[in-house]
Amino acid sequence: MNEYRTHTCGELGRQNIGEIVRIAGWIHRKRNLGNLCFVDLRDHYGITQCVFDSASPLFEQIQNLRVESVVGVVGEVILRESINQNMKTGEIEIKVQKLTVHSEADMLPFQVSFEDDSPEELRLKYRFLDLRKERIHNNIILRSKVIKRMRELMMEQGFTEYQTPILTASSPEGARDFLVPSRINPGKFYALPQAPQQFKQLLMVSGFDKYFQIAPCFRDEDPRADRSPGEFYQLDMEMSFATQEDVFKVIEHTMGSVFEEFSNGRKVSKAPFERIPFKEAMLKYGSDKPDLRNPLVIQDATSLFGASGFGLYDQKVQDGEKVRAIVAPKAAEKPRSFFDKFDAFAKESGMGGMAYIAFCEPAPKGLARFFDEAKLQEIKNFLNISQGDAVLFMAGKEKVLNKFAGLVRNKLGHELDLFEKDSFRICWIVDFPFYEENEETGAVEFSHNPFSMPQGGMDALLHQNPLDILAYQYDMVCNGVELASGAVRNHKPEIMYKAFEIAGYGHDVVDNKFGGMINAFHYGAPPHAGCAPGVDRTVMLLLDEPIIRDVIIFPLNGKAQDLLMQAPNVVTDEQLKELHIKLDLDKE
């Protein structure tokens, strides 16, 4: 028999009535009714109500203990007078005969038994207390179940889990690396892996065929609500002799099953998930992470202007700018203030304003005064507008306009309450551009993953405008959140050298930074492809948590600090000397 407990706080029920039991846990809540003191005792598994009689010598002792003290009790299981149907153990309580105090708690910095408005910095400083809260505790348990299920689903499809190195070489692409100085090799540094990218490709070259790993990734990035600074975990996978569609099939089965099983009754997109080319996504949704719960679609209305009679937009089109339109269903009767709010939003966003037409009775409003009946009918037909709808117009340079239109689309969808409720809408964004132009320098840069295979291979690199080349790259998006990114890999050295050359990297850079992988490709590399869904973001979506830190067991704060362990922190002069490092810090 266990010294501390015969049962957990989550398993006693009517079947145990009359038994003498021993349980242990934290004092979750106390209620003193004068002659009786009710104590809710909590452990990882649940809560059990314990009763102390005022006639007992234990009564004063329990009275003096603060909540969150750890105790053990021995007593008889009896039927509760007031059954609590909301508790797993709500039919019984324990009439306490013996009390053992294992650890007394100090005054708490915030309450654990209920959610309060404690600042996040305080919660993270005392994260061990925050993790005791029911919501956060359950979040972490669900995260564990999701990871377990991911592993099972990958193994069922013939994948094997391998662990790749944590200490590796710095990469010139992607986010900033976390660097680790080498004591044995003075002046040289390891980098923590931003992803196991090169290693998983090397595994394919080594003949392992189907790899996966619940992989830690380290990136020195600024935090966001859906991105944890410092480190995160992903379901990393790679497979040999595979096309883009082969990867989609594996991930759709794995992630589709995870969402189905943990959706708690919410609707989930069925495989195969919708495929949307990048260019189409930017036009129709103004984002490469479209939220498909919103039915609104952005349309190119440029051809309607140029000689329309509305001078402002006509001039913009003549100057090479574009016009976008979003039809707002059944919004024609909205008050003028509704449309003015969007006009103000455009001005605040540096877009100069917005225009609208409301097709209402007895006559259309807004821009309609600039157009004759024929032009208005042309606009209705071209944009598929019904009587009673309104349409919002915006104009500008294409790249900026697309993103702004995406913001308007989401804002309008929320204003009109159009978003589909209780659903996970999943899609693939495909056909990403291989390169993009640096807006400041005009240089050609990789737009996504430098290890991807360009569509058209070497012929495309030799004969196409670099900015027109597409890549076998793809993202999986759910409800406007990028869940996964992947690609068909470039496994041919000559194509890789040429791809990097176009982006401004010589052969020496490729050999120096990616020498291990490029060398391996000279000895027979299979065609291979992979993907990496994010674990943290998956759990965040499943739990409908707005902040990613609430699904991570010990997260960093918004300044990439661990307030609990006080990291990062200073080190001693002796440690720096061993690493051959001198600090050159600003006096401030």
How would you characterize the overall build of this protein?
With 588 residues, the chain is α+β, with helices and mostly antiparallel strands. The chain has an eight-stranded mixed beta sheet, with helices on both faces. Helix 12 packs parallel to helix 13. The protein contains 17 helices and 24 strands. The longest helix has 23 residues, at 134-156. The relative contact order is 0.11. It is 29% helix and 24% strand.
What's this, in brief?
With 588 residues, the protein is of the alpha+beta class.
Q: What level of helicity do the residues show? A: 25-40%
**Poorly predicted residue ranges:** none
End-to-end separation? 61 Å
The number of helices is: 17
- Profile the largest sheet: 8 strands, mixed
Strand order of the largest sheet: 6-9-10-24-23-22-19-12
Overall mean pLDDT stands at 95
Strands, total number = 24
Tell me the strand percentage band: 15-25%
Shape: globular
Quaternary class = single chain
How would you classify the helix and strand content by structural class? Answer: alpha+beta
Topology:
Layout: E1 20-32, E2 36-43, E3 46-53, H1 58-63, E4 70-79, E5 92-103, H2 120-125, H3 127-130, H4 134-156, E6 160-161, E7 179-181, E8 189-191, H5 197-205, E9 210-219, E10 230-240, H6 244-262, E11 267-268, E12 274-277, H7 278-284, E13 298-300, H8 311-318, E14 322-328, H9 336-348, E15 355-358, E16 365-366, H10 373-383, E17 390-396, H11 398-415, E18 423-424, E19 426-430, E20 435-437, E21 444-446, H12 457-463, E22 473-478, E23 481-488, H13 493-502, H14 507-513, H15 515-521, E24 528-533, H16 535-543, H17 573-578
Parallel strand pairs: 3-5, 6-9, 11-18, 12-19
Antiparallel strand pairs: 1-2, 1-4, 2-3, 4-5, 7-8, 9-10, 10-24, 13-14, 14-17, 15-16, 15-17, 19-22, 20-21, 22-23, 23-24
Helix pairs in contact: 4-6, 4-16, 5-15, 12-13, 14-15
